[in-house]
Amino acid sequence: MALSPPRTRLSPPTRIGVALAAAALALTGCSGGIGTAAAAAVPAAPAPTPDPVEWEECGKGLDCATVEVPLEYTDPDGERIPLAVTRHRATDPDRRIGSLFINPGGPGVPATETVASIDAAEGTGPYSPEVVARFDVVGVDPRGVGESGAVRCLTDEQRAEQAAEDRDPALPGGKRFGELLADARTFTQGCLDHQSPEFLASLSTDNVARDLDQVRAALGEEKITFYGASYGTVVGPMYATLFPGRVRQMVIDAPVDTGLWQNDPLRLLDEVARSNEETLDAWFDTCRSEGVQVCAFGDGDPEAAFDALIAELEAEPLKVPPTEGGSPGGTLDGAMALEAVRAAAGSRLLWPTLTASLLAAERGDGRALHFVASLITIAPFGAPFATLQEPHNGVRCVDWPELDDLSEHRAAAKKITARGERLGSRAAYSALNCALWPVANEDRFTGELTGAGAPPILVVGGRLDNVSPHHWAESMADRLEGAVLLTREGVGHVSYRTSGPCVDKAVDAVLIDGRQPADGTVCDDTPPATTRPPGA
């Protein structure tokens, strides 16, 4: 199996792309101690110490490399696979603390691209200037993601067909069940056609954590500092559970409930659907409370106007021409508009864009909503242009328990659609690919992720998060031994570097000095507005 080497230069994502990636992810247990299945996941022998990293400069302050790791840690001397690694060198090397490993989520978002988006000269990017000064920030594309052999399941033609397909918001999953099942068969067979079954079976988060430890060893670091967002909050606790003595400090932001992730993914997806709806409702409430002089959409009744617009777009879609900026153009129907709204409502940074886009669509101009939908890179329930849907499914399907009972999917879809929510139809059957996943993870890790023995972990949870409901943060703070909970008020997924100095100072204090805030600290946030950026 050929895997692509890391590219030598990485293009940082656009700001709106970062916001969309942060606003959308697909997630999906609550056992006690390490059980039989968990014990089986532990390697029979330690993996060989990897060769030291050989860096090549690949941008301003950036180095890129490849680190080879075992395909399966139960066979540490067997086949090896390459991982893409990028680091941003500490800008104040005399005060360097060590390496800060990061995982931006997904699963499926390349960590190397996140590191490449750091702009030390401007002091902007996903990490504060002081963190960038004190740490080499290290991004490892997890196996099956980005430049580490990204999972491929669809041809370019199939992707184009998926982008252009007509979905019906009135149907669970957007299509008839037979069609959804046929799509899942095509998708999963394509995964097997493009990758070996052994590689697909190896994509689990416990292997990702072991990979990080191999990179740690290759860097010559005794311990790592870790910041994980979204799905990265599964990776971090997994690492802290497997290698507690190798954690210096850890922060997890917008946490996944790892109990649900490991044991009850259909319930997890149901809770994501509820959170999506709650953030849209918050936009409606804010629009109404601001008044028509500020939020003109709906003339005081945004819900009614929204429902009418979606129905109109579904009955008579708008034609959207291609743009010089790279938007592919096409058609904006009700289903695609809902997908764009779901992503934009979940990010307070995009609320002004959402308001302007809805007003434009009412006037017959669908370009803005179409542009938002076309930039969605990873989403809880798939998306018209979700080019990272394939690695996303690859990771979660081997992490999750078997989901091959189709009646369970039907029951979950019925429960979601019975609530009558505006965004619910897209959530239904969103785990169907995993029902037909073509490989089994025979040594799936089922032990509870407690991080026992690691330093206290800071858990940062948003009060209104479209992907990670706040009670997940509470559950994670209870599950992780000695953890500290920090709550951010307001709307948004991921709080660090998006919510103001209260969160940023607390996270930096943990990462740099190991100084925790008081457990239960609450950070206020600038209330989101429908027509201006936060804080403007």
From TrEMBL:
UniProt protein name: Alpha/beta hydrolase
PANTHER family from the UniProt entry: 2-SUCCINYL-6-HYDROXY-2,4-CYCLOHEXADIENE-1-CARBOXYLATE SYNTHASE (PTHR43248), AB HYDROLASE-1 DOMAIN-CONTAINING PROTEIN-RELATED (PTHR43248:SF25)
Signal sequence interval, chain numbering: 1-39
Segments forming domain AB hydrolase-1: 101-290
Presence of the UniProt keyword Transport in the record: no
Annotated organism of origin: Streptomyces zingiberis
Keyword Hydrolase applies: yes
Pfam families with a match to the protein in the record: Abhydrolase_1, Abhydrolase_4
